[in-house]
Amino acid sequence: MALIQRSIRPNSSDPVRCHRPASSSPRVIYPFSSPRANGAKDLSFFTYHLLRTERPQLRIRCTHAMSSLAYKEMDRFSAPARLMIVSDLDHTMVDHHDPENTSLLRFNAMWESIYRHNSLLVFSTGRSPTLYKQLRKEKPLLTPDITIMSVGTEITYGDSMVPDEGWEVVLNKAWNRNIALEEAGKFPQLKLQPETEQRPHKVSFYVDKGHAQEVLKSLPGIFKSRGLDVKIIYSGGIDLDILPQGAGKGEALSYLLKKFKEAGKLPLNTLACGDSGNDAELFSISDVYGVMVSNAQEELLQWHAENAKGNSKIIHATERCAAVTLYIAYERWRQAAAENYESFIQSLKTICHPSGTIIHPSGVEQPLHEWIDTLRPYYGDKQGKKFLVWVDRAFTSKIGSDTLLVKFDKWELTDEGRNGCVTTFVLNSKPDSPGSFSLVHIHQTWLEGFAASTDDAWIF
Ligand code: GLC
Ligand code: MG
């Protein structure tokens, strides 16, 4: 995923703020900048459609069968899910600037090994089913438990992508796509998006930023005068979506949460991740944690500044955490996936202060530079083996005018199991280079129950 920097530790005493606009007139979510870069059906799916179209007398029975299948697909566990991640795809889960898909593959490995068995993965995308399936062919995406497509107007479950027909019924209320198309079509500034992106509850156009303002100003009144209650969302400085008022990524998530709650299976934690205008709603839902990725578009940041600034449940991943970057390099180095074996050693020496020290979780203390020299034999020792390194619950605090403390849990997963340490970095700012820091101290202590079986099985 483009950059989920750290996980957020839920705090039940956090004030929960809900920023849902009260007005019933068309809601406009709009932006102001940033250029835009830009699955499989199984037998049950085909059987369903065959029966639906060719044997109408079986339709009711079949629809019931599918809703129970849909329910089964969304409900893999007997207890509430430990975590439900609801993530946008383009520029959030998928970093289109990373042809090697490094972050995505890391996320996938972590999800499969640690979360899949008790947590739910939900993709929430603006893409239609056609473009979503195209992305699945291009990128190594996991199969989610639930897929929300077409800006929250289509919800499907499981590998077979069983549609949620209840959601279609909800959206059909007070919606008339012909009027939406007719009125918006009168604006020469609006260019219709391709046919695949026109969906039963979504009419989509392109409009450049220069013309977006005037269109966004006029459209709501026009729809209101025609008795149509719609939501207009402008995303990525180019896309304009017209949806039923009750649709959108946030509404779709609220609908799912309600369903889970009714079944007594409300996930213990829900985390939403996104980067652009159509994701803003995801961050408006009570009790949902949020990560706006570091590459978030200005429209989302502006929305956050105006609507959710004080909400501690939402964080903006402002920069790649240095510890995360360091450990990604370390993991690659042990797997011999780094291009240059010596450059990792040299960059560690550059980062670490010559008189700095490290305390290994066993309690052994060593000068940092001496310790770095002992690392060389470990280059490539994990090649072809399971070796995953990640950082969790990182937080940074300033403990002096020029000293930072970074504390996090550092985890390693190997074929032998999972080990973890609470790790503390103490960094001093470099007097000759303001804004740069040098690592003066590393201190690690085992996380309870996750100590390595032998001291030398844990290096860093
Ligand atoms: C995706 C969809 C497009 C939509 C945009 C913003 O790119 O393909 O139709 O307008 O997301 O929601
Ligand atoms: Mg996106």
Protein architecture, described:
The protein is elongated. It has twelve helices and 19 strands. The N terminus is likely disordered. Helix content is 30%, strand content 26%. The strands form three sheets. Strands 6-5-4-3-2-11-12-13 form an eight-stranded mixed sheet. Strands 15-14-19-18-17-16 form a six-stranded mixed sheet. The chain starts with 26 loop residues before the first strand and ends in a 14-residue tail after the last strand. It is α/β, with parallel strands linked by helices. The chain binds alpha-D-glucopyranose and magnesium ion. Magnesium ion (MG) binds next to loops.
What's this entry about, in short?
It contains 12 helices and 19 strands. The protein has 460 residues and is an alpha/beta fold.
How do the helices and strands line up, and which of them pair or pack?
Layout: E1 27-29, H1 43-54, H2 59-74, E2 84-87, H3 102-115, E3 120-124, H4 129-138, E4 146-149, E5 154-157, E6 162-163, H5 165-172, H6 177-184, E7 191-192, E8 203-206, H7 209-225, E9 230-235, E10 239-244, H8 249-262, E11 270-274, E12 288-292, H9 298-307, E13 314-316, H10 322-334, H11 341-351, E14 352-359, E15 365-367, H12 368-373, E16 387-400, E17 403-414, E18 417-430, E19 433-446
Parallel strand pairs: 1-9, 2-3, 2-11, 3-4, 11-12, 12-13, 14-19
Antiparallel strand pairs: 4-5, 5-6, 7-8, 8-10, 9-10, 14-15, 16-17, 17-18, 18-19
Helix pairs in contact: 1-2
The structure holds alpha-D-glucopyranose (GLC) and magnesium ion.
Residues 88, 90-92, 275-276 line the site of magnesium ion.
